[in-house]
Specification:
mainly alpha; 0% strand; single chain; 71 residues
């Protein structure tokens, strides 16, 4: 059985990147803020931003594949 590494990674510290960037939880993080966070001097913010970018790519693919199967 495959490990669910993404679920573990995203559930580790929910809302931490939102707090660091000053974006209220429940709102999407703007792409500009995410890009600037990816170049941050703080290594933990860089890692979280990178993971968020990866999650956006995977979420888009998952949603597209689900919509195709429903048609």
């Amino acid at each position: 059985m495959k490990e669910k590494w993404m679920q573990k990674a995203f559930s580790a510290h929910p809302g931490k990147l939102h707090r660091k960037l000053g974006v209220p939880e429940g709102e999407k993080i703007p792409a500009e803020k995410l890009a600037s966070a990816a170049g941050s001097k703080d290594p933990s913010v860089r890692r979280m931003a990178s993971l968020a970018k990866t999650g956006k790519r995977f979420a888009g693919k998952r949603n597209k594949s689900r919509n195709k199967s429903r048609r």
